[in-house]
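for the writeup, i need someone to sanity check this before i put it in the appendix. the sequnce is what the collaborator sent (i think, or maybe the updated version? ugh). structure was predicted straight from it, no edits. if anything looks off just tell me and ill rerun, i have time this weekend
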Amino acid sequence: MPWYRKIVKPSAKTLSTAKKAAVLVHIFQGEQGLEVLYMRRPDYDGTHGGQVSFPGGRREEEDLSFKQTAIREAREEVGLFYEDYRIIQALEPLYIPPSNFLVHPFVSIAEEQPELELDPKEVAYTFSVPLSELRQGDLMGSAKVQTKLGKVKVPAYLWKDEVIWGATAIITARLVALLS
């Protein structure tokens, strides 16, 4: 995580009033062994426009749980159907200060590479990274990214032409730690 995130802890009030969301960290058996699914959001003016993320989004009134939010959002954004995978672990919720979201990540696993159907309003494209590459640690580095504060150097996973940073990198690091 960026250095300043380590010293700024959100208050209980901030966490209770933050917008709530959930994401699905989807692992599947792919051409290169177990792979982790990522998506790039389309470019737009919002805080997370053009960024790499996991399928997910805001909790809706009809969602009975954060797990249900992750399942619904994954279906809506990339066409993952719950019948094709199983959720194996909830990760610790993560507060994202720039957008004031408290995100609840869930790890899922599938035996096959998914056939995806992308919502073009939500997803520019998807890609996957072999879990073995993430676990080796060779993809960890840093990059300069555009934020509301201007260009900022941040820790990131660097995969081909993709820069996985911010909340997505923190969740990825938590996944790697869990599996190590």
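Residues 3-135+166-179 form a domain with the Nucleoside Triphosphate Pyrophosphohydrolase fold (CATH 3.90.79.10). The first strand starts at residue 19 and ends at 30.
thx in advance!!
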